[in-house]
Design a protein that fits this description.
homodimer, alpha/beta, 60s Ribosomal Protein L30, Chain: A, Alpha/beta knot, 2 domains, 35% helix, 23% strand
Chain lengths: 252, 252
Amino acid sequence: MLSKATFKLISSLELKKYRKESGLFVAEGGKCVCDLLECGLKAERVLATEEWLHTHEFKYNTDVTVVSNDELKKASFLQTPQGILGVFRQPSRMIDLEAPEKRLCIALDGVQDPGNLGTIVRIADWFGIEEIFCSESCADIYNPKTVQATMGALGRVKMFYTNLPSFLEQTKEKAPIYGTFLDGENVYDKKLLNRGIIVMGNEGKGISDECALHVCERLFIPNYPQGRSTSESLNVSVATAIICSEFRRRNN
Amino acid sequence: MLSKATFKLISSLELKKYRKESGLFVAEGGKCVCDLLECGLKAERVLATEEWLHTHEFKYNTDVTVVSNDELKKASFLQTPQGILGVFRQPSRMIDLEAPEKRLCIALDGVQDPGNLGTIVRIADWFGIEEIFCSESCADIYNPKTVQATMGALGRVKMFYTNLPSFLEQTKEKAPIYGTFLDGENVYDKKLLNRGIIVMGNEGKGISDECALHVCERLFIPNYPQGRSTSESLNVSVATAIICSEFRRRNN
């Protein structure tokens, strides 16, 4: 049986303030929880229903509290709880300032939708991008909705929150900085290296002026047929996927 | 002032049953409402706040009921109403069975998340894909969440619900049918024509066996570096975007 204190702890982790204070976050569902454990993240608590444990293999050296469906429902942030919930410690990682010189990285400038942020982490993981540098104005990576949207990729991609304009300024002498703009050049025709930073902007406003200043390679995903009246833009996670795919296609 | 009957009508349109009975749907926000009017969709009602009308140009030949912020808040399906809401008639369009012979189309096999469906409509619009054929098991295109995610693209892309396996069976003699599978061939290396159908599958289960039977070109988006342990898959809207981008890159 779960104590009131545990329910209270978990429910507090819906808010950034308490996630920051405690250094904890919640992940739900077998894929998310097991992927994070697989990547070596430390779980403070794992709750699972008997049914889930009977129908899944759980091979990690972590205590599991068996809970009833009702208890899990009460603890879960999901409309349909997924049988297992983990409370994890946020990993603390050193920022590698030289990463963009050696490999391809992503920088996010004010991506505010938790779902978009999580989807971008999953895309980065698919395309072997190990670091994402976020402006302070981005959604919190440990928001339960974001964690859910990463589908476990969060354990494999390193996330850093930083003063993005100043980070880009420091980096631009040493590595190319790419960004997408409505007046950029056709990404299919541009020379794309296998290192540097791809900057993606806010859902409504795109890349801020402060960051745009440091972008040396302005890209654009052409619509089809070119020049046709169409949607004004692509969703930021969709655009990130297309750009990453094009970098990896060229350099595979 | 809005009548009780109008509030009741709008609120009923959150449910598929009433959307089907009435043939109506709701779109919100200036971009969505104006794009649909621009495309010639018929609005039965348009509600807008005085503030919205003062700060935006509204050039369409349609009656607008001025409502208070409170009234709009009561009518709206959004947490933060966008100043304008339209009740539209669902367009009835003839299915063009020969479209896949002439141009690139998308088929969706059980895409169930309303947000994914809407995002895919927006992607189709960007890449000049005029028709999307949906299995009966897909989310309803007129779900308010889906309409919102299309960002107005819904007016430009024709949506058809049909028995997908039998439609693919009829079509496969005349046009190539592409689909993504985890054991498919590298999409960057495959020959891709500028016509035919791209089949995208359900979020969890992918393309059903009944539809897979008719796919003649099995594609795969390679991860990077190839063979590395990574996310198990990409989100369906993200995968659709990458595939469409690759078709259009080759044939632009």
